[in-house]
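$ run holo --ligand "zinc ion" --emit tokens
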Amino acid sequence: MKDVYILAIETSCDETSISIVKNGNEVVALTILTQMDKHAEFGGVVPEIASRMHCENITMVLEDTLKKANMKVDDVDAIAVTYGPGLLGSLLVGVEFAKVLSYVYDKPLIKVNHLIGHIYANKIGEKMTFPSLALVISGGHTELIKMANDYEFELLGETEDDAIGEAFDKVARVLDLPYPGGPNIENLAKKGKDTYKLPKPVNDNSYNFSYSGLKSSIINLVHNETQRGNEIRKADLACSFENAAISSITNKTKKAIEEFNIKTVIIAGGVAANSFLREEMQKLCDNLKVDLSIPPMKYCTDNAAMIGAAGYYAYLDGRKADLKLNAKSQDTLI
Ligand code: KG4
Ligand code: ZN
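-- output --
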């Protein structure tokens, strides 16, 4: 079969990223320009600044990617782009840029859901065996998805309120840690012990999650202790939070593996970078004798290579978009 090269574009949040991916699993070139330092000044992503920076940088990011790949836009088979979910203004920059490339170079346009991109990051250099259980855990999502086959998704459960990454970011803020909170909580938690008694996020029979109760209990605890003039053992609190947040993920994953006879567990999204979560999931999967697939760190957080991997399967499936394609800030997988 002829090799298929996908030029993929990702601008859903604060990373301007373009990649060229061969046959859905080989990254020929990848450029990620992060705006993190700029947004860190404000303690979180400022949507207006994000879209403006995507506009300023996207052409340069394309040139850089083509140079690394030693290719021209003419050499690729299709243009894939993240159309949602994400920040509307940011998404629009990528979508309009992709439409222009598709029109000018006469290449098929493929729309990719950002979360499906996170899931397909696992295909880079790896094989997936079905049925799979995909855990999408990021700043905006906490979803447990069953995959019977490529591009066949069944949503088992999701968060009822805050996403797990959002909880990491908010708890980090309460502990005076800089944005993005996840990696900073993780580093601090390594120096602490699980000594604070915190409410366990939903432990019911469903596959849903909830993080706002856990987050609020920490905000209240810090507030009350500060008012009483008591010292807060920040490392212990970070460790206790991380344990509570992640145990809810491992409990629900265990239940789903057993109920659906899962062969592979796939972890996707920014929170998949968390090493405590990786260790706990590895233990669980070893015990239950299922494969665990976690993308390398650099493909866990937002990047265009994962969009190229997902875009390849969408391309094979004939899922073409047209020039009316619009960005969608919210979108469901199914
Ligand atoms: O997937 P992503 O890059 O962007 C979204 O689509 O949301 O995920 C970003 C989220 C942030 O909430 C960040 O704090 C979290 O992933 N994160 C982590 C870690 N690295 C990133 N959370 C926990 N531990 C980490 N090491
Ligand atoms: Zn993401």
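-- notes --
Residues 48 and 89 are 7 Å apart (CA to CA).
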